[in-house]
Specification:
The complex is a heterotrimer of chains A (about 270), B (about 350) and C (about 180). Chain B is α/β, with parallel strands linked by helices. In chain B, about 45% of the residues lie in helices and about 20% in strands. Chain C has a single domain, classed as Pyruvate-ferredoxin oxidoreductase, PFOR, domain III (Pyruvate-ferredoxin Oxidoreductase, domain 3). Chain C contains six helices and seven strands, in the order E-H-E-E-E-H-E-E-H-H-H-H-E. The chains are: A alpha/beta (about 270), B alpha/beta (about 350), C alpha/beta (about 180). Chains in contact: A-B, B-C. At the B-C interface, strand 1, helix 8, strand 8 and helix 11 of B face helix 1 and strand 2 of C. Strand 2 of chain A pairs parallel with strand 9 of chain B, so a sheet runs across the interface.
Chain lengths: ~270, ~350, ~180
């Protein structure tokens, strides 16, 4: 018994250096081991906790792997139909201008079926945050080709590799929305190393702070792996992401405080 | 007595929305209902009541804006005409599944496809049978006058929140475009955010420490859970059938024959009734006001007292299916319809009665 | 009393607004009214028509295919609506641009040269009110004070300075009316 107490003693509050934020529901995530979603969830909830806005935040989950995000994020949430999250967020923010509103969407959701909603919410300069997880594939439905699938990349609906002539080109949605006057902060990040996780969290904080300023959309793309869909080990998938995804989807800020960042700076940051 | 105005049906919908305390209108232009958003934009409801009016990028976006707004407890509406309502079906199904209140106005035009911009009632099936995927219904109100276009906005919102369900006003191009005298109801103040939170404890309005987080969704991957949701919806529809059936009967007391018609067709039948009665044909009019829930019992009762019934619709025979399902004894029921934007003339309807029912 | 009227002419002649002013005046006089326009592409430069019903009782069908009165302002409308007037009914037409004059002998027919007169007086904007004046002379359904109220309600406030011109036009129209065929 004494031994046990001795072990527990080191779990005193003053000894705790890290713990799960209470803004994450205490249940196992349904994501594949090695997937980036869990890390983004945690950074997002830590941001809201640090800003003390749990009671003022309304989130919208998509259709895709993160369809059940509302089971893990301990805030009020709505599950949108495939691609429609920015439409929901538009109405909510317009009618609850004092709330913090965000959408959490994958590449199929945001860049294929929801292209119109994404572009128009950005173009109207709605005041919410869009978190865009780009793993180049439809994860939940079993690894089909996404609008962001790389040229030559294999998926269950491009089994011989994406042929750009017949299947189109990977869509850089983030660069596209940066061109619209309604976006204020547009950035592309990753969460596969501690350094990248820190940068993503910083971007999230900036995005949610922007909502207080009422200045337009803050758009954060997170390039992520899909080790299941890509049929790799988590470690290999992260390496593959660095070698293949980052050159096509270079990391870094694209638009800050309403101004496009010089393309050179973007290149310099790529692959960091 | 409320304020009297001469208004188009579409304008009456818009004015009624402001007066009903609506929080948000989201829509996309389509003939013959564009006056609704035009009127709202002119009226600057954000100044009058704080109501949000937004022109969306599509009907798909509009209905999902409703989903967002309704999920946070706000009183939201959209309007469109047939092709646009088809585009909204996915969103309506989601809202029915997530049990969200909203008001949708369909100013019906002829179809199928791009069809015509002239009035029609060919969207009856879509309106009363669900329309989108899954087992669900909307409450469907069928106005027959500009006055009812106004009144049903208020009634529609009341029912939408009472049952947490999408409510559809099934109108048509003629009622949308025509002007009649309207007695406007007195404005009801929009609810404050505190009132919304208090009245809609189910809504996602931001999680305070003292309650669990709220999830608005139509998804339950566990079939047992999904069946439970379905059973709850079905119980709600049974309740509606018990409590919310509305209809009107005109000159049915001595009638040997009955017209059954909703909306504009009912107005035409009223005129046809006058013509027929001048010829000593004793005909009455039964007008379903709620198309879902359908006044099945009342139709079954009246069917026993008459020699025959003519269902008059601006479609190829849709409501007649519900009429036939209502009857518990074989009755002479026939259909007369015009389609594609053609409105049957009153004397045409009298001829149909004479040929199909009386002489038939 | 129920009066069923069709007003028909070119888009831009003020057909719809004439109907609206008539209907709104009816509302002010506590009548039941309906105003049912043709709508859609045919309005853009083509023909426009509106059915106005004014009644002491609840109006049944706002859409009808025979009329007590037809007010006709172009040839296409003459071709289309002359035959829809109830026997013993009334046809008022502006002969300007009419090449085939009415042929019915079982209805009352009046002409009103309002387009010419409006042009001469520089009152083209209220041409439609002259025609309405002609109609109201024959069928005084609306008392002048209610017409005034109807104008106030149907014209936007920025056009209220035109009410006087409108009322003047109504009086001018009454004087322009000429009988063509009057049944005993």
């Amino acid at each position: 018994m004494e031994e046990q107490f001795a072990k527990l003693d080191i779990r005193k509050d003053e000894n705790i250096v890290y713990k799960r934020t209470p803004l994450l529901v205490d249940r196992p995530l349904s994501y594949c081991p090695g997937c980036g979603h869990g890390t983004v969830h945690r950074m997002l909830m830590e941001t809201l906790e640090e800003m003390d806005i749990q009671d003022k935040t309304i989130g919208i989950s998509p259709v895709g792997c993160s369809v059940l995000a509302y089971d893990f994020l301990n805030i009020d949430m709505l599950g949108a139909a495939h691609g429609r999250a920015p439409a929901l967020a538009t109405a909510i923010k317009r009618m609850w201008p004092d709330k913090f509103v965000f959408t959490y969407q994958g590449d199929g959701d945001l860049a294929a079926i929801g292209t119109a909603e994404t572009i128009h919410a950005c173009n109207r300069g709605e005041n919410f945050v869009i978190i865009f997880i780009n793993n180049g594939i439809y994860g939940m439905t079993g690894g089909q080709m996404a609008p962001t699938t790389l040229p030559g990349m294999r998926s269950s609906t491009s089994p011989y590799g994406r042929d750009e002539k017949t299947m189109g080109h990977p869509l850089r949605m983030t660069e596209l929305v940066a061109q619209l006057p309604g976006t204020y902060f547009v950035t592309r990040q990753a969460v596969h190393t501690p350094n990248h996780v820190r940068r993503t969290k910083k971007a999230l904080r900036k995005a949610f702070e922007n909502q207080k300023l009422n200045v337009g959309i803050s758009f954060i793309e997170v390039v992520s792996n899909c080790n299941s869909g890509w049929k790799m080990t988590p470690v290999n998938s992260n390496k593959w992401m660095e070698d293949n995804m980052f050159p096509y989807y270079p990391l870094g800020d694209i638009k800050v405080d309403g101004k496009i960042v010089e393309p050179k700076a973007v290149t310099a940051k790529a692959g960091e | 007595m409320g304020e009297l105005r001469l208004m188009k049906g579409n304008e009456a919908v818009a004015e009624a929305a402001i007066r009903a305390g609506c929080d948000g209108y989201f829509g996309y232009p389509i003939t013959p209902q564009s006056e609704i958003m035009e009127y709202l934009m002119v009226e600057k409801p954000h100044e009058r009541t704080g109501m949000v009016v937004l022109q969306a990028e599509s009907e798909v976006a509009s209905i999902n804006m409703l989903y967002g707004g309704a999920g946070t407890g706000k009183m939201v509406m959209t309007s469109s005409s047939s092709p646009g309502i088809s585009l909204m079906q996915e969103g309506i199904s989601y809202m029915a599944g997530a049990e969200l209140p909203c008001l949708i106005v369909n100013v019906v035009r002829g179809g199928p496809g791009l069809g015509t911009i002239q009035p029609s009632q060919a969207d009856y099936f879509q309106a009363v049978k669900g329309g989108g995927h899954g087992d669900y219904h909307m409450i469907v109100l069928a106005p027959a006058s500009v006055q009812e276009m106004s009144d049903f906005v208020k009634l529609g919102f009341d029912l939408a929140f009472k049952y947490r369900t999408p409510v559809l006003i099934l109108s048509d191009g003629a009622i949308g475009q025509m002007m009649e005298k309207v007695e406007l109801f007195d404005p009801i103040p929009r609810r404050t955010n505190e009132e919304v939170i208090r009245q809609c404890p189910w809504a996602a309005t931001g999680k305070p420490k003292e309650r669990d987080h709220i999830i608005i969704t139509s998804l339950d991957l566990d079939p047992a859970g999904q069946e439970k949701i379905n059973l709850k919806l079905q119980a709600k529809y049974r309740q509606m059938k018990k409590d919310e059936v509305r209809f009107e009967m005109i000159q049915c007391e001595d009638a040997e024959y009955i017209f059954i018609a909703f909306g504009l067709s009912a107005r035409i039948c009223q005129k046809a009734m006058d013509i027929a009665r001048a010829k000593n044909i004793k005909v009455g009019l039964f007008r379903p006001v709620t198309l879902f829930p359908f006044p099945a019992k009342a139709i079954a009762e009246i069917s026993k007292k008459v020699k025959g019934m003519l269902v008059v619709e601006m479609n190829a025979g849709q409501m007649i299916e519900d009429v036939r399902l209502s009857l518990d004894s074989p009755q002479k029921v026939e259909h007369y319809g015009r389609f594609g934007g053609i409105i049957p003339a009153p004397d045409e309807v009298v001829s149909a009665l004479e040929q199909q029912i009386i002489g038939g | 009393m129920t009066e069923e009227i069709i007003i028909a002419g070119f888009g831009g002649q003020g057909v719809l607004s004439m109907g609206k002013i008539l209907a709104y005046s009816g509302v002010m006089q506590n009548k039941e009214v309906s105003w049912m326009p043709s709508y859609g592409p045919e309005m853009r430069g083509g023909t426009a028509n509106v059915t106005v019903i004014i009644s002491d009782d609840r109006i049944s069908s706002p859409i009808i295919n025979s009329f007590d009165t037809a007010i006709i302002l172009n040839q296409q409308s003459m071709d289309k609506f002359e035959k829809t007037i109830k026997p013993g009914g009334l046809l008022i037409y502006d002969p300007n641009g009419i090449t085939r004059h009415p042929v019915r002998r079982d209805i009352n027919i009046y002409s009103i040269e309002a387009a010419d007169e409006a042009g001469k007086l520089g009152l083209s904007k209220v041409f439609n009110m002259m025609v309405l004046g002609g109609f109201l002379k024959l069928k005084p359904l609306i008392a002048p004070e209610y017409l005034h109220k109807g104008l106030q309600k149907s014209l936007p406030v920025r056009h209220h300075n035109l009410i006087e011109d409108n009322e003047k036009a109504v009086e001018i129209g009454k004087a322009l009316l000429k009988p063509v065929l009057v049944l005993n």
